[in-house]
Amino acid sequence: MAGLNLEVFKFGMYVLFPIGIMYYFGTNLDDRFAVPDFWPKAENANRIPTEREEIKAELERLRARRLYFRDRRLAEEAARPQPPPTDETK
């Protein structure tokens, strides 16, 4: 008879424990445990382009950005003084 009582107890715990947790904390868990302004707004989030024109515009933007940084890097390298050549054959 002890085995049956243990099984009833375990079943009761499996069923009543989650129900008790839900009763204790309530139903508005999003309001109680949420951090305000944690997720970015839709207008600030990255959106993957899906239309053909959007993809072309994004590729053009990335190309212009890459060329801008390349030109800036080349200008900085040209402005940097070059070290004098050393003769390593001696």
Give a nutshell description of this structure:
The protein has helices at residues 2-25, 29-33, 52-79. With 90 residues, the chain is mainly alpha-helical.
Structural description of this entry:
This protein has a domain at 1-42. Helices cover 63% and strands 0% of the residues. The protein has helices at 2-25, 29-33, 52-79. It is elongated. The relative contact order is 0.04. Belongs to the PET100 family. It is found in: Membrane; Mitochondrion membrane. It comes from Sporothrix eucalyptigena.
Strand content: under 5%
| Most strands sheet | none
Distance between the termini: 100 Å
Oligomeric state of the chains in view:
single chain
Reading the helices and strands in chain order gives HHH
Task: Please report the total strand number as a whole number.
Answer: 0
Summed over residues and divided by their number, the pLDDT gives a mean of 86
The geometry reads as: elongated
| Rg measurement, Å | 33 Å
Residue stretches low in confidence (pLDDT < 50, at least 5 long) are none
Number of helices: 3
What structural class results from the helix and strand content? mainly alpha
As a percent range, the share of helical residues equals 55-70%
InterPro entries: Pet100 (IPR018625)
Keywords: Membrane, Mitochondrion, Transit peptide, Transmembrane, Transmembrane helix
Transmembrane segments: 6-25
Membrane topology: Single-pass membrane protein
Task: Name the features.
single chain; 90 residues; mainly alpha; 63% helix; 0% strand
